[in-house]
Each structure stands twice: as C-alpha cells, then as structure tokens.
Write a structure and sequence with these properties.
alpha/beta, 7-stranded parallel sheet
Length: 394
C-alpha cells in the first residue's frame, strides 16, 4: 500500500515503516559520531522503549556503550490494512540495526504496568542477559491498571484550584486559539498520580531486587519535565505536576532499595521536545515552537537523541559523581532554562497571534519533527512507492 500521513488533531493515525527505519538509523548515526561512554552500562532494561526519550535511551546505550538491551513497550502491529504504530516500526528497525552490529536486543510488547510483563522481563533477563546495570523508566500512558487492585486509573490533564485559559497552536489550521480547562477534582489528581507517578517504577525496581537481577552499582533513571512559567498552571502546578512530584518521591525510595548494592536512582528533568504527549498539552506545543526558534538562532537546540547522548556521557557516566541540583534532580533542561532564553520567551509570548506565527514561531520545524515521529518527511524515502505495512520482529 501507499502510506501517507493522516493527522487528526495532535496525533497521526498512520506510520510509515521505511520512514520509521530511516528515523531510527538517523539517531543511530548521530550516536555513533558521539564520544563512546567509558565504563558505560552493558545490560540495560528500558521500560517504555519504543518512542521519544525511551527509544533514544535504548539507541544511546547500545551504540555509545555497546550495551545489550531489553525494551518493554505496548504497541500495535499492522492489521487488516492498517499500519502498525510508529513505536512498533521503530522497535523492529532498532532490533535489526542492533543485531547487525553484533549487539543483543530483545523486546517485550505488553502492558508494562502488569505483573505478567514484569515476570516475563525477569525470565528474559535471567535467560539471556545476566544482571542489569541500568534501568531506564520512560513510560508515557494515559491509563494504568493497578496490578494490586485491578482498578484502571485514567490520568487527567487539568489545572488545580481554578479553571485555566491559555492560548495554543492549532497545528491543523495554523492559528492561535484559546483553550479553557476546568479545575481538577480530587479524584482527577489521585488518578493522575496513579498513572504518571512513581509507583510502577518502584514496583519494577523491587521486582528486579527480589530476583537478584541488579548489578553492583546499578543506576536507574526516570524522566521528568518542569518547563517555563507560561505552562506551569497546566503542567508543573497541575495534575501532571502532582504525578511528577510522586516520581521524585519514588526516586528517593528506590535509592533506599538500591543502597545494598551501592546503586543510585535519578530523575532527569529533560528539555521540551516534540512528542506525541507534548503535542496534546494546551500551550506546550506553542511554547515549543517559540523555544525552537530561539534556541536554533542562539545555539544549544537539542532533540531527543542529542539530549539523551549528553545525559549518558556528561551526567550518568562521566567518570565522576552525577551532578544534580538542590532537589537532587539531573537538570538536562539547563540550556532551555537559561535566563536569556526564558526572558525572550516571556517577551515574545504576549505578541503571538495568528498573524505573527511565522515571525515568532518555528512552525516548520515543529511540523517536521512531528511528522518524523511517524516516519514521514525523510528525503531518503519514496512516499509514493508501495510498501508492505506488516513488519515483524526476527
């Protein structure tokens, strides 16, 4: 079939297998050109490994450190003439590239929140890998079924205390619109913490500790975002922010779990990038277009793979102590949050209307990054050619 992008709101419902493979190859080629990680991880478990920062983590570990990787994700294969999800195609392409490079790469497609997938991962690690020395937790899901209660919790994207109105970029129409979100109820907050907090990260680490599958000095890292003041009511100070606070609580609890093997737990606050999740948050997609324009002009712009390669080489495996801020967080958003950058964002923000999008926003760059998430926009791919949508793991 000939596969074209079909965008509905903030998601593309098609994905291109050849384009996704090109995207993975692009990230691998970038990684190969970066400094190798000295004394880096050799057996890595990535929970949420198929897109975004999780996929970048898997690529960086494999091609900067020569690591064996086990990726866990929940993606849909091609069926009845529908394309697979981008994450499925990404993961098939990664495994092919890793195995061609002589690296062990295995994947588990299932609900990472479930006990069954945790048990499956433990058995796979025992059989094929040996002890894990890095666990990356990069799950992004709108819902989670608690394995202890069987209750399915759904996260909410809402402010806390009062309703919130902010402008956002309607990417379909290329217009600036206002969005109003009603204030969260207490149940919304609790559900969001259940989904986006650190409870499942703790369960993964405890399961691996109980199975004696973590190496001496093992590290684990989960990903966070804080962002600028213009997004705080909906992000940092909203329901999502409560989930992220719980992630930091879990980080401290995981440090205690790992103390017996001299392991360490970290939360890395990463830069704003174009992801399927960030595209859905009112105000955040507009902020990203402004940020990209500023950082591309002033220097220091990074996407997922650039950010994670820097995290691995400069922070987690820098032959010294990992630098953190006063809250114990790794601040990979340091370049984004520089005062000169944020001062410009604050200056520009009130001036953005539909007629000034091209002046103040990197709309083309946003669109390019968004379409690349789904395998579109690569010069090396003939998008008018027939392609087989069914791609399977070897």
């Amino acid at each position: 079939m000939i596969i074209k992008p079909k965008v509905r709101g903030f998601v593309c419902v098609t994905a291109h297998p050849t384009g996704c493979a090109a995207h993975v190859k692009e990230w691998i080629d970038y990684t190969k050109n970066q400094p190798k990680i000295e004394a880096g991880p050799k057996n890595v478990l990535i929970i949420g490994a198929s897109t975004g920062y999780g996929l970048a983590s898997r690529i960086s570990a494999a091609f900067s450190s020569g690591a064996n990787t086990l990726g866990v994700f929940f993606e849909r294969a091609s069926e009845r003439g529908r394309t697979a999800t981008a994450g499925w195609y990404n993961s098939v392409a990664f495994e092919k590239e890793a195995k061609a490079a002589g690296l062990y790469a295995s994947s588990i497609n299932g609900d990472a929140f479930s006990n069954e997938v945790k048990e499956q991962a433990i058995e796979r690690i025992k059989a094929d890998m040996g002890k894990i020395d890095l666990v990356v937790y990069s799950l992004a899901s709108p819902r989670r079924t608690d394995p202890a209660t069987g209750i399915t919790h759904k996260s909410a994207l809402k402010p806390i205390g009062n309703a919130y109105t902010n402008k956002y970029l309607d990417t379909d129409k290329k217009t600036i619109q206002d969005a109003t979100l009603e204030a969260a109820a207490e149940e919304d907050i609790l559900n969001t913490v259940k989904v986006m907090g650190g409870e499942d990260w703790e369960l993964w680490i405890q399961a691996l500790v109980d199975a004696d599958l973590l190496a001496e000095g093992c590290k684990t890292v989960a990903y966070d975002y804080i962002g600028p003041k213009v997004t705080w009511p909906i992000y940092k100070d909203g329901t999502i922010g409560q989930g992220k606070l719980d992630l930091r609580r879990a980080c401290k609890a995981n440090n205690e779990r790992l103390s017996a093997i001299n392991g360490t737990s970290f939360v890395s606050v990463n830069k704003a990038v174009v992801t399927q999740a960030s595209s859905a948050i009112p105000g955040v997609n507009l902020y990203i277009t402004v940020l990209f324009k500023i950082m591309k002009e002033l220097g220091g712009h990074e996407g997922c793979i650039e950010q994670i390669c820097r995290l691995m080489t400069d922070r987690l495996y820098n032959n010294g102590e990992t630098p953190v801020d006063e809250q114990g967080l790794i601040r990979m958003d340091d370049w984004e949050m520089e005062p000169k950058i944020q001062d410009l964002v604050s200056e520009i923000w009130p001036k953005i209307i539909t007629d000034t999008i091209d002046e103040y926003c990197d709309f083309p760059g946003y669109q390019e990054d968004f379409l690349k998430l789904f395998g579109f926009g690569f010069d090396s791919v003939d998008y008018n050619a027939e392609v087989e949508p069914e791609v399977v793991f070897d």
